[in-house]
Amino acid sequence: MICSAEFPNAGSTRAMYNSVLMRKLFGLCVLSLFMLFAAPSYSAQAPKPSPAADVMAAVQRAINLAESGRCAEALPLLRKSIRQIADKDLKKRVGLDGVHCAMTHNVPYESLAFVEVLVR
User: For residue 97, is pLDDT > 80?
Assistant: First the structure.
């Protein structure tokens, strides 16, 4: 052990060393706690559904609205979704629902997009 009589600044050097060491240790503890609490929040996020799933959900919603008689709400959704559908039977169903809604709500020009798809 170093005697303070031999080195008069030994006590202050030791205090400075301990102070720097404590700051580094405190910073390490804070960083560890941050990593501990931040990591689960990143892994707990739900995966985003694929675009195809979003399209199918919108199509189903539009079909349900049209077939329940809520054509004013269904027409814009049907018009948007008919171009995104690849399944032939589903496209026919959306087209027929679109024509039905357009005709019953007295907007025949709205039905042209659906008739165009149905004719193909």
Answer: yes
Mean pLDDT of 92-105: 93
DSSP structure class, residue 4: T
pLDDT of residue 2: 52
In which band, very low, low, confident or very high, does the pLDDT at 22 lie, cut at 50, 70 and 90? confident
Has residue 8 got a pLDDT over 60?
A: no
Say yes or no: 37 and 62 in one domain.
no
Q: In total, how many domains does the chain have?
A: 2
List the structure tokens of 18: 């301990």
Q: Provide the residue range defining the domain that includes 109.
A: 51-119
The distance of Cα 12 from the centroid of its chain, to the nearest Å, equals: 56
Side-chain-side CA neighbours of residue 9 (13 Å): 3
Q: Could you tell me if 57 and 82 lie in one domain?
A: yes
SS3 letters for 63-92? HHHHHCCCHHHHHHHHHHHCCCCCCHHHHH
Residue 49: C-alpha distances to residues 45, 52, 83, 96, 100 (Å): 12, 8, 20, 28, 31
